[in-house]
Amino acid sequence: MAPPVATEVDGSPRKADSTTKSGPQSVKGVVEQILNLNARKHVRQTMENHWDINDPDVADMVIHLARESHKQQPATEKVDPVDAFCEKLESVGAETSRNTADILMGIVTRIDGIIERLAPPKSPRAAGVRKRTHSLDSADGAFPGLRIHNESVKERPELKLERPEERDGIAPLSETAEHLILEEMPYRERVKYEREKKRREHEKEMDKRLDDYHRRDRRRSRTRSRSRSRDRRHHHRSSRSRSTERRRGDKKGRADLQPLELYTIHRGVVQRVMDYGCFVAFRTQDGEKEGLVHVGEILPASSVGRSRMSASDLVRRNQSVYIKVVGLAGTKISLSMREVDQKSGEDLRPRNSTSSKSIRPGESAFRGANSIPVGGAATNARARSGVGAQSGIRLDLDQGAGSSSSSGRQSKPHLNDYELWEARQLRASGVLDASDMPDFDPRNREETKEEVELEVADAEPKFLAGQTARTGVILSPVRIVKEPDGSLQRAAMQQATLAQERRESKQAMQEQVIKAIPKDMSRPWEDPNPNQGERTLAQNLRSITMSSTTQHQNNKRHGMPTGVSYGQRSALPMKEQRESLPIFKLRGQLLQAMAENQVLIVIGETGSGKTTQMTQYMAEAGYADQGIIGCTQPRRVAAMTVAKRVAEEYGCRLGQEVGYTIRFEDHTSPETRIKYMTDGMLLREALADPLLKKYSVIMLDEAHERTIHTDVLFGLCKEAIRQRNDLKLIVTSATLDAEKFSRYFFDSHIFTIPGRTFPVEILYSNEPEEDYVQAALMTVMQIHLTEQPGDILVFLTGQEEIDTACQLLDDRMAQLAPMNPPPLIPMGVYAAQPSEVQSSIFEPAPPGSRKCVVATNIAEASITIDGIYFVVDPGFAKIKTFNAKTQMDALIVTPISQANARQRAGRAGRTGPGKCYRLYTEKAFRSEMLPSAVPEIQRSNLSNVVLTLKAMGINDLLGFDFMDAPPVQTLINSLESLWQLGALDDEGLLTKLGRKMAEFPMPPEQSKMLLASVDLGCADEAITVVAMLSVQNVFYRPRDKQSVADQKKSKFHAPEGDHVTLLEVYKAWSRNRFSAPWCYENFIQVRSLRKAQDVRKQLIGIMDRYRLEINSCGQDYNRLRQAIAAGYFNNLCRRDPNEGYRVMRDLQQVYIHPSSALYQKNPEWVIYYELVMTTREYIREVCTVEPEWMPKIAPNMFKQADNRGISKMKANEKIEPLYSKYHDRDALRILAKRKC
Predict the structure, then answer these.
(1) Percent of the chain surpassing pLDDT 90
(2) Compositional bias of type Basic and acidic residues: which residue ranges (predicted)?
């Protein structure tokens, strides 16, 4: 066959003078050449990705054969062009076996799609169609990046990830993952697990033997012998032969073992770990032996931070390792691990011995519990420089490990500009040696290179060209406030100032208390270096003078129960409790409506029983025989508690017929018939099964909350019921706005459950309130002193307001104590409270007392509190909004909607006739409040949702059937963010990296961080960091012991930042055998750590399921910092010369949070996890990074500034002189101040 290089891409002969013609033909020829070159480029990229071939001649041949397949098919024959293309590829010698047929079809379809999109148009009509499709001026093609055609997963089989459960059922954990999970278990649970595992293995072996026996018995019955004696003799001979084989096998196994001699290599298991080393047990030809590996013999001598590590940081108990005998002294055996390759068992330092050899090459090398060479000193099998196989980032591990910022555990001292200038002057004058310089690298024996200047690359994805804010496209966001200049919005904006004043007033009172302490007691606070224990004594004396009581103590004082309980307790039998619910009387009508309608909208008040009873009614009616009955909940706590209640009513153990699934926790089994889950978990199941085939009924509960996942599930379930006639969909809501749901779901039937409601009197304020917290407290006191008995429910926006309100109510009641008023028991409710405190709100108040529950909007519909007769509604709530300009989420106080106001008022009419005090005018209710709340999908970051939709093959985001479409600007920002992470290619299609990221139940940034950690060899530490970030409030500061708690917390501070600090906390907890008293001693939330431990176990299972290596980097935290930077490079900040930091992305000024380990340390470059807005913009969970990493980790986001010019960040600086009022303004020019 003639080489294809002699033909052009379209198959026609090349013309050397095609570009020299004049006139319109010349322009046309140039355009055709550009398009053909573009097509060849994309085809070569695709071939390199899938075939590992990057040859322009082969690309030309593939394009030529593909176009011939499209042209030469007769119109009468219905032949798939892809099949014709496969035949042509086979004719030229391409391998297209049956095993690769499916993958080949997907590759060919992918190539054809590229050719069809990039090929030159054949006619003016086609050109016109193409122009209309991508024109920004038309309505249909305004945003072509959001209107990419959808594609089925079958069209791109190269993106399909192999799941072990799809091939061999539910695959067991690998040995490495099982070791890691066993290390997270307490001793008793570990022993129980191992016993259960041995029992299962024994039962499996016995079943196998029994099957073999029956098989032999059937074989003997088919081939009877004439003589029974001959059979017996044959049986004895076979028995003797089998016993002989067993003896030979034992001898052969002993022959594989090596004798106990110097410099022999063995495989052993770590038995005990001490500070000075570890004891390893191993087998030899002489029997079981045990030797000591000194801590200096674990890591190579060149390892970073080797002298500062203990054995517990490098190895773990029950870890399988390779050891080398280096010393024999009587019964004592000295071993070494650093002279053996822990991956292959090869001797790295051969010495003279009679039997010096390594482990057999054919033997499978076990890598220990960390799945890498122990301690992480050596890298994995990949080269130290190159491109990561999982994350696609450019690796330069030698540079990362040798960075001067943290060689081992030492970090570069952070000096200001003057101190650095002074050190360089002393170095230049010869006073200081090079080794005395602060930026000297002891590992490389040289000073580090000069400071790296970074710039934000203005790279724009090709599929979003001309559609982003860089090109001037400005779109108005969705309005979450109806009247920005109204009285409600003014009060909301003023509340931050009032809260700051309250904090300052409280702090001033505390300072007065401290000053009232005798002088000898206040000396430890004034002394910067007090003696040990002095501040603790002063703190205890200070706590005596401060009369602060917690809610738990307050409940105990008023006689309220203090134990843990879930929900309301009732003395009625279970059957009578179920029959007392309002839904029980409508059971028959409800089942009939379900049978007659495929989609049903159910409206019912909170407490009517729709969540717990409807699933049981459907199971009793036989719907569970056809598939699982699934019910989604917007919150994890709701899914857990409801599942426990339903399992109790259903009469089964939780996890059997009734179970639940939440993120990082699965309590279901093959017998599960009723399954409660969060809406996010059902969305993840739809990723693998868009039609939800294993479900017979889907119940979307609490749909009125309109979470992001619920809105996406609306569209997916709507498409599923179009294709499945046997699927039932039920949408439940606690509000009366059901017509919108009905119209969206094909004008479906509405079923209403009447609740136990009583009339509620609505009282409005005559004038707008400026401080709604004080107005609410005055209203509570007025109700308590003048109204009839009955509990009070007050709605506030957050934890700080609730704690302040409860404390002020206690203080005011203490002031009224001489008047002997009836007791008032304030009780706060918010998400961060302990379980025992939350459960106390359901208990009735003691006789003669009144309970005042101060809650967030969680009390609107999610929980039901009996005994409430009075509701105080200030009209505000704290909601999360996404700022597309700053790329961050923020919790802001905004006015509620009219639907929320009605829902709050309804809380007063559950037990009897009640009253609702609205602390705003009736005019504000009608003119300043939206009719319904803005859905979360229109005010949140959608990167995770877009990634999930892309993984399902849904690329046309504007064409997706949202109930309320999200803002276009948010979608474009999400696509751009995913492209920067590498999850999308230049055409806006999902990459292999993006497909892997979609499998992790976490934000895309954390998914990229985990995948990068696999390439960088620090997955074990990254999993722990992600698990710790998934929980909140790891540390707690009691109001009466804040300084002691701060001292305990400072022990864990790491110079690398908060991520490593959290890692050190978890490691310390693990070394203390996961002790709860240790947590109490160090002011650490034991419940948060246990939750992080569960998350870590789940992440280990996910990583093992997709065969991702779980490596450990030991103490080389540079790798971990690079992995963090690979996921959160968008949050890179640089220190501002004046104050705080500047975010590189948009130069926004931010400040490190006071709770951070880097507070007042002022490193030059940091990356943060989240940004919170309180009195100022604070960054939390901060980690130090090196600027030279960023162009390699995020080439689409950062580039190194040109040394010949001035960077954009420097150009924005404005030099202002530092002057004295007695001299001229321009007398001194020292201070460099940035433009604001």
Answers:
(1) 26
(2) 148-169, 195-215, 242-255, 339-350
Q: DSSP letters along 530-558, please?
A: PPTTHHHHHHHHHHHH-----HHHHHHHT
Question: By CB neighbour count within 10 A (0-12 exposed, 13-18 middle, 19+ buried), where does 409 fall?
Answer: middle
What SS3 string covers 214-262?
HHHHHHHHHCCCCCHHHHHHHHHHHHHHHHHHHHHHHHHHHHHCCCCCC
Asked if the model's pLDDT at residue 1028 lies above 90, the reply is yes
What average pLDDT score do residues 961-970 get? 88
Q: Tokens for 86?
A: 């496969």
Q: Which helix (H) or strand (E) holds 969?
A: helix 968-981
Backbone angles phi, psi at 308, to 5 degrees: -105, 5
Q: Report d(CA 842, CA 260) in Å as an integer.
A: 69
Q: What is the DSSP string of 349-395?
A: S----TT---S-TTSPPP-TTTTSSGGG-S--SS-SEEE-TTT-PEE
Pairing of strands 287-294, 1132-1135: unpaired
Residue 633 phi/psi, 5-degree rounding, is -130, 145
**Can you list the pairs that 773-776 forms with residues at least 24 positions away whose Cβ atoms lie under 8 Å?**
773/495, 773/498, 773/801, 773/804, 773/805, 773/874, 775/874, 775/919, 776/805, 776/872, 776/874, 776/919
CB contact at 8 A, 1133 and 1143: yes
Q: 3-state class of 976 per DSSP?
A: helix
* Structure tokens belonging to residue 606: 């909170």
DSSP code of residue 308: G
Our CA angle for 838, 842, 845, nearest 5°, is 115
Which segments of 816-952 does DSSP mark as H helices, in order? 835-839, 898-906, 922-927, 943-951
Grouping H, G, I as helix, E, B as strand and the rest as coil, residue 889 is: strand
Cα 1167 to the chain's mean position, in Å? Answer: 17
Q: How far apart are alpha carbons 1184 and 1168 in whole angstroms?
A: 9
Whole-prediction pTM: 0.68
1134 and 1142 in contact (C-beta within 8 Å)? yes
- Per CATH, which fold does 574-753 belong to? Rossmann fold (3.40.50)
Half-sphere exposure of 1046 (CA within 13 A, CB side): 13
Q: Contacts for 295-302 with beta carbons within 8 Å, 24 or more apart?
A: 297/326, 297/335, 297/336, 297/337, 297/338, 297/339, 298/337, 298/338, 298/374, 298/375, 299/338, 299/374, 299/375, 299/377, 299/1114, 300/338, 300/377, 300/378, 301/338
CB 51 within 8 A of CB 58: no
- For residues 619 and 674, is the Cβ–Cβ distance under 8 A? yes
Instruction: State which fold the 265-376 domain adopts.
Output: OB fold (Dihydrolipoamide Acetyltransferase, E2P) (2.40.50)
Q: What is the helix (H) or strand (E) element at residue 632, kind and residue range?
A: strand 628-633
Given a cut of 90, whether residue 796 has pLDDT beyond it is yes
Specify whether the CB–CB gap between 59 and 47 falls below 8 A.
yes
Residue 928 in contact with residue 952, Cβ under 8 Å? no
State the CATH class of domain 760-927. Answer: alpha beta
Query: How far is residue 844's CA from residue 661's CA, in Å, rounded to a whole number?
Result: 32
In sequence order, the β-bridge partners of residue 600 are: 730, 749
Q: Which of 60, 114, 102, 105 is nearest to 85 (CA)?
A: 105
CB atoms within 10 A of CB 724: 17
Residue pLDDT, tens place only, 1141-1195? 999 988 889 999 998 999 988 899 999 998 887 778 889 999 999 999 999 898 8
Q: At residue 192, what is the residue type?
A: K
Contact 909, 761 (CB under 8 A): no
116 three-class SS: helix
